[in-house]
Amino acid sequence: MTYCVALQLDRGLLFMSDTRTNSGVDNISTFRKMVHFEVPGERCITLMTAGNLATTQAVVSLLQERSKSPDERSPDILQLPTMFQVAGLIGQTLREVISRHDDNGQKASSTFSATILLGGQIAGGEPRIYLIYPEGNFIEASADTPFFQIGETKYGRPILVRAYEAGMSFEEAMKLVLVSFDSTIKANLSVALPLDYHVYEADSLRLGRTGRIEADDPYFQDISSGWGVALRDAFAALPEFSFEDSAAPHEDTGGA
């Protein structure tokens, strides 16, 4: 399993992904799940993947090869004019890879299934984020749905829903996403550090701040321990439940 998050902010986009892959408890590895496509001053595109590792690596490899080989540059992720068309190309490539490896044809429930988060900006358009499904179709982030998650999403979602604000700074957004990852890591062993991130500034049209947060990162350790303390303090500050003040339980008199 994995966990990836993409946030759409007023200032730009923020991406973060873990690096754990596993095929059972005795086969755990570290693989990078974030990849970038860039033409400085013209476009900057980030992909994050979740699902079958062979499928996601095949999709990324096809996209990379077709952006390098002159004979395979139709269509090309580095030449398509809009992010919408890029999302369509990636969805088509994902469907192609899954269909090729599934004897029964492409199915969302297939063992070769995968999901992709796409985000970025192409000159002349706005920064955009898309969630691409195994079937090849996709949806776009909006003001009503300003972030997407893939992989093990349920544990890290509550803090995003409660604390996200479009106008927050990149620093605040990093803190928010790290809390989301910490909650997920605490609850599920299939998600783990290191964490890769990319912070894209709107209209820069080039790769922004990127990095990897290791397990011994002092800031992440402060976030992890501080969030635990903050939750306990917040819980302790809530009013106590009172049985006396609650409604009396219903008594069944056994009447006819």
Structure description:
With 256 residues, the protein is of the alpha+beta class. It is 30% helix and 27% strand. A five-stranded antiparallel β-sheet has the order 10-1-2-11-12, with helices on one face. A hairpin with a 5-residue loop joins strand 3 and strand 4. Helix 3 (157-163) runs antiparallel to helix 4 and helix 4 crosses helix 5. It is globular. The model has no long low-confidence stretch (mean pLDDT 91).
Task: List the SSEs and their pairings.
Elements: E1 3-8, E2 12-18, E3 20-22, E4 28-30, E5 34-39, E6 43-51, H1 53-66, H2 83-101, E7 114-122, E8 128-132, E9 138-140, E10 147-151, H3 157-163, H4 170-187, E11 195-201, E12 209-213, H5 218-237
Antiparallel strand pairs: 1-2, 1-10, 2-11, 3-4, 5-6, 6-7, 7-8, 8-9, 11-12
Helix pairs in contact: 1-2, 3-4, 4-5
